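Field log, afternoon session.

UNIT: design team B
ACTIVITY: writing a sequence onto a fixed backbone
BACKBONE:
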């Protein structure tokens, strides 16, 4: 557990000690890891494995399916496995292929997943930012919507797990971002008041507004310079200086 007073329902990958002082909490996908590039590369490889040619239309189908069904899982309408099956079913329909039963969908998604995992990469600005913040004495943690095993594995594979004292996921907390319960339960596990928690994420609604509604400080990581929200950073390399202000 991350702290002695963690909720009984929460299971966290962490060191067994409380976290005190300022805590910087990060999202994973789109923040520390380039999920979109990995998903695109994984889909390309998977399609070629099954004898299909990658096209922009198929990529758009996959992106829409991910957004639709992952959101339904986040809202508690589907299990994690069910949202994976529905994503694969949507892709098969777009390919004009027969949608089989659950066992077949699981097998097909596992084949895609292997290709996706091979493409996992940290953003180049992530490791040096995390190292600097850790060396300056900040406590670092993760709060991510996702499966605990997969998200912890991502951090290990991209080489940044060592920087975090605590990794929290929506399934371990029993609540997902942007719902306030996710941030409130994370604060309890981290053993820190909201005023000492800062969240960094790439999604304004899910990450930034969700954290702020729970009383946290939050910054938008605006990698594509959309200008949708302030304050923001365009790269994690800007974050240490921003935290000095």
């Amino acid at each position: 557990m991350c702290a002695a007073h963690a909720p009984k329902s929460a299971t966290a990958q962490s060191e067994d000690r409380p976290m005190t002082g300022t805590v910087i909490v990060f999202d994973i996908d789109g923040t520390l890891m380039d999920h979109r590039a990995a998903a695109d590369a994984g889909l390309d490889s998977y399609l070629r494995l099954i004898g299909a040619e990658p096209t922009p239309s198929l990529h758009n189908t996959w992106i829409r399916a991910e957004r639709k069904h992952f959101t339904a899982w986040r809202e508690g309408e589907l299990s994690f496995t069910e949202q994976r099956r529905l994503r694969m079913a949507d892709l098969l329909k777009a390919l004009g292929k027969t949608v089989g039963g659950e066992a077949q969908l699981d097998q097909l998604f596992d084949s895609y997943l292997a290709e996706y995992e091979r493409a996992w990469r940290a953003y180049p600005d992530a490791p040096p930012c995390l190292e600097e913040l850790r060396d300056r004495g900040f406590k670092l943690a993760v709060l991510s919507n996702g499966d605990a095993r997969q998200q912890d594995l991502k951090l290990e594979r991209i080489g940044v797990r060592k920087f975090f004292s605590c990794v929290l996921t929506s399934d371990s907390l029993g609540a997902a971002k942007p719902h306030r319960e996710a941030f409130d339960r994370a604060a309890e596990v981290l053993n820190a008041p909201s005023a000492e928690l800062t969240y960094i994420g790439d999604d304004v609604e899910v990450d930034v507004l969700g954290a702020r509604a729970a009383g946290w400080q939050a910054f938008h990581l605006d990698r594509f310079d959309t200008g949708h929200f302030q304050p923001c950073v365009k790269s994690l390399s800007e974050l240490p200086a921003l935290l000095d202000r």
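LOG NOTE: The longest strand covers residues 139-144.
NEXT ACTIVITY: expression trials, pending approval
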